[in-house]
From TrEMBL:
UniProt keyword annotation of Methyltransferase present: no
InterPro entries documented for this protein: HcaT-like (IPR026032), MFS_assoc_dom (IPR024989), MFS_trans_sf (IPR036259)
Membrane topology: Multi-pass membrane protein
Pfam families assigned to the protein according to its UniProt record, in alphabetical order: MFS_1_like
Alphabetically ordered keywords of this record: Cell inner membrane, Cell membrane, Membrane, Transmembrane, Transmembrane helix, Transport
Residue ranges crossing the lipid bilayer per the database entry: 7-28, 40-59, 71-89, 95-112, 133-152, 158-181, 201-221, 233-252, 264-283, 289-308, 328-348, 354-375
Domain Major facilitator superfamily associated residues, every copy: 5-356
Presence of the UniProt keyword NADP in the record: no
Protein name: MFS transporter
SUPFAM superfamilies noted in UniProt: MFS general substrate transporter (SSF103473)
Coiled coil: none
UniProt-annotated location(s): Cell inner membrane
Organism of derivation: Bacillus spongiae
């Protein structure tokens, strides 16, 4: 299997499972397992916290001693096995233990896949965008398939789809991996220190985690906001998919159009787009404006994510990449999003549109820092 195709499969299979787990796992807990919304929300919050800790500590440490190829097989296999443990779990305490165990292993597939892509960019000169867009396609397919299956049956099908998706993710890890991934990268224990002493890395990281974290209100309260606008459930799914489609188009063209653009300038674009996106939703609480703002997901998520991948590929040694990915996934995709979810929820209870205004305010420093980066490190 060609390297580009191999990586595309890894992205597609993981993000298909992510598209089942992220939007629908709460519904499965409530409808199939009988938990209250409060208890289900608590379980998901614990999942975010555990995920943040595991990607920050476990992934960078274990990747020092084990090749990424073996890790992908191990993580996917354990995820598949752990899912079966959920079948007999019914009490809150037992489900809490199950969700913690799952969150220690399953989310590690995200930084692992991204680290794999970064290394293949360095050694095999593959196109990151061409493979990453298949992750977005996998997420979109999962949203559509899960919605249709739930409509045709019950929420019990969520677990079945998650199990099937994980099986195909595990199956893909046993395809012949590119030789450059089979090398075990033994690193010194101070790989975090090497990153933290770099002012440029810390500034880029700060901008990216704030931009990614600012999606908290959108991820957590976007559906509720559309319901406030009297949008039916069928059309909500269609509207949310506009953002993913915009992301797919961006990743398909990212290398061609942005491959030589300075990372700092990409962050300026992402910061401006993020401020505009959340501000217009606040200023113009109309369905048409929300739909148009969905296109900006290619900027607020896509450009910010692509900029970070470009930065670690251009500026870091290969041995530092898993540590950098672990930090980014832990803080940007986990901890910051979780913390800003509480902030956004507080504002949403006051007035729904305030949740988006709050995210806009949070990202204003990103624009300032990005301009400083462009001037100083161009």
């Amino acid at each position: 299997m060609r390297t580009q195709t191999w990586l595309s499969y890894q992205f597609f299979s993981f993000f298909f499972t992510w598209g089942v787990f992220m939007p629908f796992w709460t519904a499965w807990l409530v409808e199939s397992k009988g938990f209250s919304i409060y208890d289900a929300s608590t379980l998901i919050a614990v999942s975010f916290i555990t995920r943040s800790l595991s990607t920050f500590f476990i992934f960078p440490y274990i990747s020092k001693w084990v090749s990424l190829t073996k890790l992908s097989k191990g993580f996917s296999l354990f995820t598949f096995i752990i899912l079966f443990l959920f079948l007999p779990l019914n009490s809150f305490e037992s489900m809490l233990g199950g969700i913690i165990l799952l969150s220690l292993i399953y989310p590690l597939m995200m930084p692992l896949t991204e680290s794999t892509a970064s290394i293949l960019m360095k050694n095999d000169h593959i196109s990151y965008g061409k493979s990453r867009l298949w992750g977005s396609i996998g997420y979109t397919v999962a949203l559509l398939v899960t919605g249709i299956v739930i409509w045709a049956s019950t929420e019990d099908s969520i677990f079945i789809l998650m199990l099937l998706g994980t099986f195909f993710m595990m199956f893909g890890t046993f395809f012949a991996a590119p030789p450059s991934l089979k090398k075990r990268e033994h690193r010194h224990s101070h790989s975090y220190k090497d990153l933290f002493v770099s002012k440029e890395f810390m500034l880029v990281l700060l901008v990216c985690i704030l931009l990614q974290g600012s999606h908290a209100s959108y991820y957590n309260y976007g559906v509720l906001y559309l319901q406030e606008l009297q949008i039916s459930s069928i059309w909500i799914g269609v509207i949310l998919n506009i953002a993913v489609l915009a992301e797919i188009v961006f990743f398909a063209k990212s290398d061609a159009y942005f491959g030589k653009v300075p990372v700092s300038f990409l962050l300026v674009i992402a910061s401006m787009g993020t401020i505009i996106r959340w501000s217009v939703i606040y200023a113009f609480p109309y369905t048409s404006i929300f739909i148009l703002s969905q296109v900006l997901h290619a900027v607020t998520f896509g450009v910010a994510h692509y900029a970070f991948i470009r930065f670690i590929n251009d500026k870091l040694d290969q041995k530092q990449i898993p540590s950098a990915q672990g930090i980014y996934a832990s803080i940007g995709m986990g901890l910051t999003t979780g913390l800003l979810s509480f902030f956004g929820g507080y504002l949403y209870e006051i007035e729904p549109v305030l949740a988006f205004l709050g995210m806009s305010v949070v990202t204003i420093p990103c624009l300032v820092i990005s301009i400083i980066l462009y001037v100083k490190f161009k």
